[in-house]
User: Fold this.
Amino acid sequence: SGSFHGNYLHTSSFLQRRLSGWEKREMQREILSILGLPGRPRPRPPPGAKLPSSAPLFMLDLYHAMASEEEDGRGSGDTDVAWGRGVSRPVLTSLSTQGPPLERVISHADMVMSFVNMVEHDRDLFYQEPYWKEFRFDLTQIPSGECVTAAEFRIYKMRSFTRHLNKTLHISVYEIVTEQSNRESDLFLLDLQTVQAGDEGWLVFDVTAASNHWLLNRKSHLGLRLYVEAEDGRSVDPGLAGLLGRQGPRSKQPFMVTFFRANQNPIRAPR
Amino acid sequence: ALKQLKKRQPKKSNDLPHPNKLPGIFDDIHAAEGRQVCRRHELYVSFQDLGWLDWVIAPQGYSAYYCEGECAFPLDSCMNATNHAILQSLVHLMKPDSVPKACCAPTKLSATSVLYYDTSNNVILKKHRNMVVKSCGCH
Assistant:
């Protein structure tokens, strides 16, 4: 309802000056600073990004669950209200019943970050046993002043390519602690799940310990390694066990979700 | 300032108009000046207008609200006023040049969540505290 006169916008209650381009940029920088961002992110959509990939879909489910709760007023409250309290597990199904409940994890978090798998190494049937899959994530974008409250590695399992669908499989995820050129890498067991070969859905592994190590020493980040074993201890190719990697559909690609709690309020640069 | 007031209070006790002695005086001020009481107003922050939707996934914007209006004595009963605001309003009546009226400001704020891409195409869901005005009042 305002009217323009020269460089000024007259409104019913106050006189507002038009901002110059520089002032607009400064103001945007100020808003970004409040949001805790050093600058405007410039994401580059990866090739074939028209189809939604698993991590953004999962995060969008999480966002909608929390937004609906905020609208209901359950999570909106005052300044001390816990975030997303009582949020139900997002749409992505999980075969896992282990690990900390998602709602409890979220309520302690200020930020949830998903990481797409950047590099995948396979030691499959063309190699000697044991077979494994390795995954790596780019953690360089984690803002400083955050501490990890929980971290999950999520991987989709199809029905195994085996005749015995009721066969039991043990799937274990390790942190790669050190890599050796002349011998096997040093590994640290993070989580173990037992499933049936015929099961299908998302598997969730607790990788909180590894995330904490990586956050403390970002140079030491060597990734995760996944093994599959049959009940008799024989190594199973993860691909044959039905575990999908980078070659799978975009909506079923593995990713990592990390829950952070801010140590302090972001420090804004004085204007 | 407090000490000065204490010393002066006995001498100038008649300077403070007592509502019972001056019936309706404040109501007249309301009516005559048509003052707008402190309340919450609509303010929508649009990420779309900021041109940020290439990295902000959700929401497109959010209702942040703002507080505006006068905090003039007597503070309306419907208003969320602190005891200090009531006292400050009274002192303002005595010394309008040295003590300002109480401020109309948010009394309750809540968080909002933003889902966005970072430069590495990771997706971040972040809760930002104290971004949405839930209620306004006189402070």
